[in-house]
Amino acid sequence: MILLLDVGNTQIFCGVFDQAQLVTQFRYASTARESSDEIGVFVRGALRENGVAPEGIDLIGISSVVPELNYSLRACCQKYFNLEPMVMRPGLKTGLKIAYKDPKEVGSDRIADAMGAVKLFPDRNLIVVDFGTATTVCAITKERAFLGGNIMPGVRLAMETLEAKTAKLPSVEIKPSRTAIGKTTIESIQSGLYWSNVGMVRELVTRITDEAFQDEAPLVIATGGFSSLFHRENLFDHVVSDLIFTGLIEALRLNGYLD
Question: What pTM value is reported for the model?
Answer without folding.
Answer: 0.92
